[in-house]
Amino acid sequence: MHVFTSIKPMQEISLKLKAEGKTIGLVPTMGYLHEGHLSLAVRARQENDIVVMSNFVNPLQFGPKEDFATYPRDLDRDNKQAESVGVDYVFAPSGEEMYPEDYSTYVEVKGGATEKMCGRSRPGHFLGVTTVVLKLFLITQPNCAYFGQKDAQQAVVVRKMVEDLNLPMEIVTCPIVREKDGLALSSRNTYLSPEERAYALALPRALAAGRQLIQHGERNPGRVREEILRILESSPGIRVDYVEVVDGRTLDELPVLRGSVLLSAAVFVGKTRLIDNIDLEVAPCTAAC
Ligand code: AMP
């Protein structure tokens, strides 16, 4: 496995491999790898000749009061893990390499999907995401890029950018990897004290209760949202940022639950902001509902 910290050699080798007819799968990450990240690399390994993993804590997607400075980092450990799942190239540039002092180009998906949920709570976040992701695509030339359903809104926004800009590549979303007790793996879980870690379980529990309501026949998005909110608000140690029940493909509001549905929430546990979601295909309600 090769580790590149400079753009030029990473881009040169990617262009060369592409010219040779090799398929490239890219797994963009901010490092501090866990089984969730590795599941994306495993899938990329199965589907491509070459697997590139980027490891870059992107300053552009953090707000001024957010955790950019304290975000956990361990490049050596990450590289060992990446190698163990068959990654061929790690791209781990510095901030200056990606955004030199005179950097001035930004890529923005406007409207709907970027304005709600995490876009509302974290202004400028998705502008940072789409800018870095497009740069990573141009540097590593992937046929396919692998994203986790954990960041469902990110996947919707990136897919929209790829569609709108006619990028000749595919976005693949992979299922959320969870701890045995249901907590979605996240690099930010390391911030949680044992007590907060226990409080955090309300998040997957509340979303699962929302899913259960739907499975029992509820088709009113407002009622499902209220039930998730009720559970979160009555759970100790949890401050709700948002709860949404929306169309899983567009994040638009739904008058009635049908087709691709996303139950999504963000909460604060102490100072740590956690997001989680459940996506499901909802059949029209029958008389048996
Ligand atoms: P991050 O390093 O948090 O930016 O995440 C990099 C990629 O890994 C994103 O596409 C995430 O959605 C994905 N990811 C993070 N956590 C998980 C998880 N628990 N299960 C599956 N994918 C994940």
What does this structure look like?
By secondary structure, the chain is an alpha/beta fold. The protein has two domains: 2-174, HUPs (Rossmann fold); 187-280, Pantoate--beta-alanine Ligase, Chain: A,domain 2, CATH 3.30.1300. Helices cover 38% and strands 21% of the residues. It contains eleven helices and nine strands. It has helices at residues 7-19, 35-47, 75-84, 95-98, 112-115, 118-121, 125-140, 152-164, 194-199, 202-215, 221-233; strands spanning 2-4, 24-29, 50-55, 89-91, 144-148, 170-174, 238-247, 259-269, 272-282. The strands form two sheets. The protein has a six-stranded parallel β-sheet, with helices on both faces. It has a three-stranded antiparallel β-sheet with strand order 7-8-9. α2 (35-47) links the parallel β2 (24-29) and β3 (50-55). α7 (125-140) crosses α8 (152-164) and α10 packs antiparallel against α11. The termini are far apart. The mean pLDDT is 97. Adenosine monophosphate binds next to α2 and β5.
User: Strand order across the biggest sheet?
Assistant: 1-4-3-2-5-6
> Quick one: overall form?
globular
Helix content: 25-40%
Q: Any idea of the CATH class of the largest domain?
A: Alpha Beta
Shape-level CATH architecture of the largest domain? 3-Layer(aba) Sandwich
Question: What class do helices, strands and sheet pairing give?
Answer: alpha/beta
What is the ordering of alpha helices and beta strands? EHEHEHEHHHHEHEHHHEEE
The biggest beta sheet is recorded as: 6 strands, parallel
Spans where pLDDT lies below 50 across 5 or more residues: none
CATH superfamily of the largest domain: HUPs
Our count of helices gives 11
Total count of strands: 9
* End-to-end gap: 53 Å
Query: How many individual domains?
Result: 2
User: Over all CA atoms, what is the radius of gyration?
Assistant: 19 Å
**Mean residue pLDDT:** 97
CATH topology of the largest domain: Rossmann fold
Question: What compounds sit in this structure?
Answer: adenosine monophosphate
Strand content: 15-25%
